[in-house]
Amino acid sequence: MNEHLLSMHDVTADDVIRILDTAESFREVGTRVIKKVPALRGRTVVNLFYENSTRTRISFELAAKRLSADVINFSSGGSSVSKGESLKDTALTLQAMGADAIVIRHSSSGSPFQLTRWVRGHVLNAGDGTHEHPTQALLDLYTMRERLGRLEGLRVGIVGDVLHSRVARSLSFGLVKMGADVTLVGPATLIPPDAPQWGVQVSYDLDEVLSKLDVCYLLRVQTERQRLEYFPSVREYARLFGLNRSRVRLLPEGSLIMHPGPMNRGVEIDSDVADLPQSVIEDQVTNGIAVRMALLYLLLGGRHGDGGEAGDG
Amino acid sequence: MASPDLLFRGARVIDPRAGRDEVADVHVRDGIVVDVGSGLDGASAEIVEGDGLVLTPGLVDIHTHLREPGFEQKETIETGTRAAAAGGYTAVAPMANTDPVADDASVIAEVRAAAARAGLADVFPVGAITKGLEGEVLAEIGEMAAAGVRVFSDDGRCVPTARTLRNALTYARAFDDVVIAEHCEDASLSRGQQMHEGISSSSLGLAGQPGAAEDAIVYRDIELARLTGGRLHICHVSSARSVELVRRAKADGLRISAEVTPHHLVFIDEDLRTYDTNKKVNPPLRTEADRDALREGLADGTIDAIATDHAPHAVEEKEAEFDRAPPGTIGLETALAVALTDLVAPGLVSLPRALESLSSAPALILGARDHGGPIEVGRPANLVLFDPEERWTAEPPFVSRSRNSAFIGRELRGRVRSTVLHGELTIAEGKATR
Question: Which of A8, A33, A97, B380 is the most exposed place for a label (fewest CB within 10 A)?
C-alpha cells in the first residue's frame, strides 16, 4: 500500500483486493454487542472536515473508534479554520499534536495532496472538490463484490453529473482497475469530454444502456443554480436520466441499484425505486465503516489479529 | 557605484539587430559604447574578461508585474527591477494592474519616479486600455501616450466587448506607434477555470478552460486589427491554434506581434498532477502539442518575443488550496537560462534567435530605443554578459520579494555574470553591485 490514500491511482488491483478482504474480516466486528477491537490503540486519527458531510465523518469516526484509536474531529465551523487559519497552518498544528492519520474532506480539489507536503502522518482523502472520493469507491467495490461475487467483467453504468462528481472519478478508476466494464451516462454537458481516455464508455441514452447493466449507479444531481446551466431543467433531467419504475424493468434480473447518498428522491431516483430490494444503498453505508476500518488499519500498520477478533485478513 | 569605464574583452558578441556574432571586445564609457573591435586597448578601463562568455544587448521584458503601487507585499519596483537585473534585463514593462490602476499619467509618473530612484533597470510602464481595467470606458490613452507610454493593456483581463477593443485600436491610431496589447481570454468560457481543459483537468477534478477560450478572442482581435488598421500585440500566446492565427494574420500583412512566456515554452498541463500552485498560471499550461507549436512559432518568428509575465505572489497566497491560489509565476531571474536550457541546448531555437526574442524584438515592440542593440559606437551601453554553460538549480530564495517560481527544482544551464545599465554594472561577477 501507498503511504497515503489520495486517489484510486494510489492503489493497485492487489491492494484493492487486500483492502476488501480486510474489510470483510472487520465487517463482523460491527455485528457484535461490543463493536471494538484494539488494533489501533494509542494511535490518533484526526477528521479534518472543511465541508459538511455528516455521513462520511461519522463513518470514519466509527471506523477509527472501533479500532480503538483516539479520534479528534476538526470541522470548519467553530474552529480556527473559520477564523481564517490556512490549511497549511492547520496541518502543522495537527502535526504538532501528533496526528498519526488525517482524514480530510475539502471543497478544493487536490487539498489532500497538498496536505502530504506539510504533515508526516498518513493522509486519507475523504472527498476533495470535484476530484476523488476513494473510500466511497472502495466501499462501492466492496458492496458490488459482496452482492455479485466478482468485480472483473461487471457491467456498471454510472449515471448523472460525472463532470463534477468525485465519486464518479474514483469509482471509474477503481472499476477499470479491477477489470469491470464501465459506461458513463448523462447529459453530454456533464460527461468530461476526455472521459473515454479513462478506459470507460460513454452514452447519452440511459434506456439503451440499462438492459446491459449489472449495476446501475446513480449520482446525486446538484440542483444549485450554477449547475443548471448544463441542462435545461430538473424536469427534463428526470425524464431523460431519472431511474423510475419503468426503467427499472429494463435492468436484467439480479442487477443492483446503487447511490452514494444523499439522494434527491424524484430527481435521479424515484422514491419507490430507492426502496426496492435490489437497491443496496443502506448496505453501502454499513460497508463503508468496515472499508474505512480496513484502510485505517492497513495504512497505520496495526498489528493484525490484535485481540484475535478481527479474522484472518 | 561601478566604474563607468569598462572593457569587455574576448566575449562572443551576439547582436541580433546588427547581425553580428563574433568574438570581439566592447569598450563602454560614460554610459555609451565607445569602441567595438578586436585587441582593444582599454587603457585605464576596468577589464571584464569575456572568454567563453556571451555578450549581448540587455534583455527586455515587455510583460512584467512589479506590483507597486498597491501590492508591495508581493513585489516593489525596487525588488522587481533588482530581480530583473539579476536575470540580465535592462528594461522591463510593468503592467497596469496595480492599485491604483495605471490608467492615467499620474500613476505612470509615480512608477517612473520609483524606478528612477532604484536605478536598476529602465522601466516602461504599460498604461491601461480602459479605466480601472473595467473594460468599459477608454483610459486617457492620449495623455499617457504624451507622457511616453507606448504599450496599453488591460492585462489580467481581456477587453470584454469587440466594440470597446475596436474603439481602443482606432483611437490609438492617432498616437505614434502605440500598441494595444491584449490578454486574450473569453471570460465566459474560462469562468471558474483552474487549468487547461483536457484529460488532465478531467482526472485532477479541476475546472478547465479550453484553448478555444483564447483562440476565439485572438481571432476576434485579429479581425478588429484588420478592420481598424490598429497595432495589436497578443500577450502570452498559449495554444497551437492561436499561433496559427497569428501566423496567418502576419502573412496578411496586419500590424500584429505576439509574445510567449518561458513557462508555456517548457511546461504542459500534465505537470499539474502534483497540484503545484506555482504552475497555476493564466493562460493555463496547455498540451504538449500546444507547447511544441509555441516553440516552433518562436523559432520561425511568428511569435516575436519571450516575455516573462513575471507575476509575484506572497508565499501564503500560493501555499493554499489550488483553486484559491492566484495564478502566476515569477520569471525574470530564470527566463534567459530557461531559453538556453530548453530551447537552445536541444537545438530547437538558435542562440541568436533566442537572444533576439529576449532583447531586440521586445525592445522594438516597446519602443525602448536605448535597448535591444545594436552594439555600436555611440549607442547606450545596455548589455548582458552571461556564461552559456554554467549549471545551476532554480531554488528560493530569489532576488524577487516572492518565490512563486514554476521552475523551482529545475536544473538550468546559463547564468548572468554582468548586467550593464547605461554603462554601469548592476550585476558584476554574478552579484548585485549595490
Answer: A33
Q: Do B202 and A128 touch (CB under 8 A)?
A: no
In chain A, which residue's Cα lies nearest the Cα of B192?
A: A226
Nearest residue, CB atoms, B205 vs list A86, A87, A130: A130
Cell of B77: 519596483
Give the span between the Cα atoms of B349 and B226, in whole angstroms.
30
Show the cell assigned to B162: 469587440
- The answer to whether the beta carbons of residues B299 and B210 sit under 8 Å apart is no
Min Cα–Cα distance to chain A from B275, Å = 6
Suggest the residue from B188, B189, B204 to mutate for an interface test with chain A (most A CBs closer than 10 A): B204
8 Å CB contact of A111 and B321: yes
Alpha helices in B123-258 (DSSP H): 141-146, 162-172, 187-190, 199-204, 212-228, 240-251
* Interface test with chain A among B189, B209, B321, B323, by most A beta carbons within 10 Å: B321
Is B252 within 8 Å of chain A by CB? no
Please give the angle made by the CA atoms of A39, A45 and A48, to the nearest 5 degrees. 155
Taking residue B352's Cβ as centre, other Cβ atoms within 10 Å add up to: 17
CATH second-level architecture of A134-281?
3-Layer(aba) Sandwich (3.40)
The ipTM estimated for the assembled molecules is 0.91
Q: Measured at the alpha carbon of residue B388, what is the angle toward residues B384 and B391, in degrees to the nearest 5?
A: 120
Minimal Cβ distance to A108: which of B197, B198, B321: B321
**Does B349 map to a domain?**
yes
List A101's β-bridge partners, or say none: A45, A122
What CATH number has the domain bearing residue B408?
A: 2.30.40.10
CATH of the domain at B156: 3.20.20.140
- Residue A274, C-alpha cell as written in the block: 430507492
Closest in A87, A106, A109 to B204, CB measured: A109
Instruction: Dump pLDDT digits (tens) for A262-304.
Output: 899 999 999 999 999 999 999 999 999 999 999 999 999 865 4
CB contact under 8 Å between A131 and B205, yes or no, is yes
| Catalytic residue positions of B, numbered | 309
Interchain proximity A109–B319, CB inside 8 Å: no
Residues B155 and B81 grouped into a single domain: yes
The CA distance from B26 to B35, in Å, is: 6
**B206/A87 CB distance under 8 A:** no
Q: How close, in Å, is residue B210 to chain A by CA atoms?
A: 11
* Inter-chain touch B202–A198, beta carbons under 8 Å: yes
Burial of B37 (0-12, 13-18, 19+ CB in 10 A): exposed
CATH 3.40.50.1370 domain span(s) along chain A: 8-131+285-308, 134-281
Cα dist. B213→B162, B184, B209, B226 in Å?
Answer: 15, 8, 7, 21
pLDDT digits (tens, 9 = 90+) for A185-221: 999 999 998 999 999 999 999 999 999 999 999 999 9
Q: Give pTM, 2 decimals.
A: 0.94
Cell of B353: 534567435
d(CA B303, CA B288): 18
